[in-house]
Structures are given as C-alpha cells and as structure tokens.
Fold this protein.
Amino acid sequence: MTGATGTPTRRAVAVGIGHYLPKRVVPNAEFEERIDTSDEWIRARTGIERRHFAAESETTSDLGIAAARAALDDAGLTAADIDAVIVATSTPDLTFPSVATMIQSGLGMSHGFAFDVQAVCAGFIYALSTANAFILSGQAKRVLVIGAETFSRILDWDDRTTCVLFGDGAGALVLEAQEGDGTGADRGILAVDLHSDGQFRDLLYVDGGVSRTQSTGVLKMEGKEVFRHAVEKLAKTAHTALDRAGLGADDVNWIVPHQANLRIISRTAQKMGVGMDRVVVTVQDHGNTSAASIPLALSVGVARGQIKRGDLLVAEAIGGGLAWGAAVLRW
Ligand code: ACO
C-alpha cells in the first residue's frame, strides 16, 4: 500500500477538519432519574461524563452538513472544489437515498459523486480507506470524508447496559491528492488495515431493519464480549498498519482511537507501548458516537493544539460486524 522507495508517490493528505455537536448536552446524572444507574458507575466503567443528543428536528445529514462546512472552511475550500463525498454512518436519515447525497445537496453540489459506507463504529476507517483508494487511483482529487451519527435514535432507553454509552455528532475531513516522496515522512495516509468477521454479528447489532422487520429496531450488545475482542484486535491492527507504513509505535505522536470506552482506549495504548499522554481522548464529553468518533477526536485534538502538522497519527476502531481496522496518517 505504501512505497518506501523515495519515488514520487500520490498521497491523500488531510487539508481540513471540522466537527459539529448538537446543542443538547446530557450529563450522566440525567439517566439516574430514569434507570437504575449512577454517574459513578458510568464514569468508572466507561470514562463517559456527558454526551450530546440531537434535537428532534435534527437528522444525521444536518449534523454532517455542519461538520462538512467547518472542514471546508478550515481547508479554505468550497464545495465546488470537492469531487466526492463519502459518509460513514449506521443511522441514516432514511433507508435511501444515502446521507452522502443529502449532504452533497445541502452543500449545494450537483457535481461529483456521493455514497455511504456502513461499518458501524469502524465506519470512518473504512471510509478513509475508500477515499484513499479513489485518490490514489486518480478517480478523485479532493474527497470529503464524514462520520455522522444519531445513535440516540436507536437506543433502548430501558436497557441500562447500552443507553448510557452512546451520543450524537459528526466530524469531517477533507483529503486532497498531493505528491509525496514515497517514504514514511510524507504527509497523508501512509497505510490502512481493514478486517471483518461476520461470525460475531450477534455480539452487536440493531434488532430491526428493512428486509427483516420493516422497522428501525434498537441496539443490542454483548458488552463484555465486544470489550474482549476490542482489546485483542485493536492493538494488532494498529501494529499491522504501522508495519505497512514502515514505522513503529515509537514513531507515533498520537493515537486517535474510536471513543467507546476509556478502559479499551487505555488498554490498547498500553498494548501498543504508547503512553496515555500520546492518546487523544474525547469519550468523556461525547460518549460513543460510532463512526463520528474518530473525526470528532481528530477535530478536537487539532483545536486543543494536541495534533500538529507533521505529527504521525494512528486511528483505530472496532464495531458491529465485527468490523475493525486502523489507519496511519501523517497530519
Ligand atoms: N449502570 C449500573 N450498572 C450497570 C450498568 C449501568 N449503566 N450497565 C451494566 N450494569 C451492571 C450490569 O448489569 C452488571 O451487573 P450484575 O453483575 O449484577 O449482572 C454489572 O454492572 C457489570 O456489568 P458488565 O457488563 O460486566 O460491565 P463491564 O465492566 O463489562 O462494562 C460496558 C460494560 C461498559 C458495556 C463494557 O463492556 C464495554 O464498554 N464494552 C464494549 C463496548 C464497545 O466498545 N463498543 C464498541 C463498538 S460500539 C458499535 O459498534 C456501535
């Protein structure tokens, strides 16, 4: 996937980042009124302190449009400069058309192409990998890659083992084709590693859908089992991606993990031999926003002044499918 040859190589380089969070902030204490839980339990077991929930009138595409506009502004570009919109989501506005076409239209684009990628919490890594392939093949010069979710719409409010974990939000990244020299010092996506294994599909799923129930359904999760797989698989996929880029954990400035649970984040970092001072953590403020969590963490990491131009980042995620993967990129 990467040339380590020092020869001119096309790279998909991040040139803009942005995010949007719905206004309504829901602290853990709000759940105490409704179900048998406590702020203390949620903080201790997950690291989550609060999350944002979309207003009734707000949809996934609304969140995505706001994030996309912020990313375009950050890049100093307009929608006219974009060739493709790829959206990672499991909570689309409608069964079809894609959220991506809604965002495309919301941005005033009637050129280019747009489609959704569905790999649940690993969706942004899959979307990033897809965008990278379009750029490397020359099919697109600039791609908007968006993670946008309204998980509050698929939660069972009586299930304390899941409803406290998730939040709504969106993050967007503008990738642009640039010329590198084919080494690990290049800016841009240096390597990607993707996996899925459908034999584990019952560990994390939504119990409704078009073809089976003609309804939306609610999220079901075997939390302990997903936790076990996450700890085992995330460090491994991150190491594989780094290997492919010809780099190692010592080269990493920031791990930008999927924000599901602080204990998973810290164990993965520990397994990789990377200190928590080199991990971007936002789970306390956002909860698990599924495919939106990595672009949200990237955007917040840049806004906080943690992630700087030239830093080496490893993003990793696992979710329903199971589907998981990692991407190595130099900011
Ligand atoms: N409040 C209080 N008690 C609770 C709550 C709650 N909100 N939720 C569960 N409990 C109880 C359980 O009922 C159980 O009680 P019991 O011992 O009497 O049966 C006890 O707490 C311990 O429950 P566990 O499930 O063993 O708790 P655990 O430490 O495993 O934490 C959690 C649960 C947070 C869900 C954890 O397993 C986890 O984070 N799993 C991974 C989730 C994840 O990473 N998902 C990523 C992908 S998401 C996607 O793709 C959409």
Q: What stands out?
A: Residues 37, 41-42, 45-46, 120-121, 160-161, 164, 204, 223-224, 226-227, 230, 260-261, 264, 288, 290, 319-320 surround acetyl coenzyme *A (CB under 6 Å). The chain is about 30% helix and 25% strand.
